[in-house]
Amino acid sequence: MNQSKKPISAAENEKARQGYFTRSTTRPLIVKNVGDPKLMRLTPRQLAEVILDREHYQRPAHRPDIVKYIHVLREGGYIPPIALAQRADGAMACLDGQQRLLAASEAGVAIWAVVVGVSDVETEQELFLVENASRSVRADYIVRAHTGPVAEMLRKAVATPGSQLHGVVTLDANSHRWSAALMVRMAAIVMTRTLHGGPILEQLAQADALLVRPGNRDRVEGIWSIAAAIFDTTQRLRSFPATCLALAVSNKWGKHVVFPSAAAYRRMRAINWSDRKVIPFETQEYVDRGVRQIVKYWRTDAGPDT
Fold this sequence. Notes:
Blueprint: H1 10-23, E1 38-42, H2 44-48, H3 63-74, E2 82-86, E3 92-96, H4 98-107, E4 111-117, H5 121-131, H6 139-145, H7 149-159, E5 169-170, E6 178-179, H8 180-192, H9 200-211, H10 216-230, H11 239-252, H12 262-269, H13 287-297
Parallel strand pairs: 2-4, 5-6
Antiparallel strand pairs: 1-4, 2-3
């Protein structure tokens, strides 16, 4: 049964087609061990067998987009080919276009796919990043799919029971947990002692390059540990206090990682970041004031743990 409200026009069809190509990545990213691409037309039955690997990189389905594509397909409109990875066992996994894939499967329509051979899941993760490098993919999904050492270090901490980040940091953009991308930013700050921003892929690349330097792995583990001890792990961590903490900690550390005393932890937990007399606005203009608040409460106490 045709459930569309009105036929799709030629202008709408062309707009959708051009929109896809303007979203395509323009930054060259190198991925090795990938077979030559081939174009295949997949039947609805074949589409239903395609793997959506949400454990390693794929995002949740977005129903409004699926409904939109179903309408386009049922009216005979054009949708671009999806991108698939063919694994060594012959199974195919979706790299890009899962909403189109699900729409075509539900609509019972065959669509085209560009298929490349891959050797392992890590290669699929890298290809996912290539396909989505300049698209509106949430930063947490990029961290989850990234194969570099910092992202791997974070994923391991999140997955390990007993870790301070277990059940606290999200790798799927859960709005009630701490952002994985924010953890990467804090890691970059403590390794460089400077404020960092920019695209998440650039932050990951810089953090990965710095992690091999002596002491930096301890610095990353240290800032994550201190953050988990100070901030409420049941609420989403805001960027401003996390950034201030990372800068303050990097200022306190010299050649060696040191941790606050129990008394200092208590004082820092008591900082009211919502008090506008303390921090008028959570903007870069007031970062120095936030850093001073943390340094003030991390003052020297008696004992070797200060």
